[in-house]
Design goal:
This protein is mainly alpha-helical. The chain has six helices and no strands.
C-alpha cells in the first residue's frame, strides 16, 4: 500500500466490504499509521452518531402512510391548479397584436413617405428625373 488510505477505503474496511487482497495491506497500514487510525476512528464515530440520530428521529416521527412521500406527492398534485384567468386575457392578446401591426405599418409608411435622408419622396423623384434628363 502506498500513501494513506482514503475515506472510501477506510469506510469499506470498517464495514468489512474491502476485498481480501486489499484488507490485509490496509490492516498492516493501519497498525503503523496513526493518522489513518485516527481518521478511521472519526469515521466510525460519525457513522455511530448519525445512526443514533436517525434512529431517534425515526422514533419521534413515525412514518405513517399519510406522512409518506407518496402522500405528499398526491397532495401536491391535487393542490396544483392553474390560477383563474381573466376574461379579458384573450382580448388583451388581440389588442397587443393589433398594436404591433399598427406600429409596423406606421413605420413602413413613414419610410416610404420620407426617404432615407429625411427628404420628401417628391423631391427624390425630381432629383432622379433631373439626372435622367442630363
Amino acid at each position: 500500500m502506498t500513501g494513506h488510505l482514503n475515506d472510501g477505503q477506510l469506510l469499506a474496511y470498517s464495514e468489512d466490504s474491502l476485498a481480501a487482497q486489499y484488507r490485509e495491506s490496509a490492516s498492516t497500514h493501519l497498525r503503523t499509521c496513526p493518522a489513518c487510525r485516527a481518521r478511521l476512528e472519526r469515521l466510525a464515530q460519525t457513522a455511530k452518531d448519525l445512526n443514533s440520530t436517525l434512529q431517534a428521529v425515526g422514533d419521534q416521527v413515525p412514518l405513517t402512510p399519510d406522512r409518506s412521500w407518496e402522500a405528499v406527492a398526491r397532495r401536491w398534485r391535487g393542490q396544483r391548479t392553474r390560477p383563474p384567468s381573466s376574461p379579458f386575457r384573450p382580448l388583451l392578446r388581440h389588442v397587443a397584436t393589433l398594436a404591433v401591426l399598427v406600429m409596423i405599418v406606421g413605420g413602413l409608411a413613414g419610410l416610404i413617405h420620407t426617404g432615407p435622408t429625411g427628404t420628401n419622396v417628391n423631391d427624390l423623384l425630381f432629383i432622379l428625373t433631373a439626372d435622367l434628363q442630363d
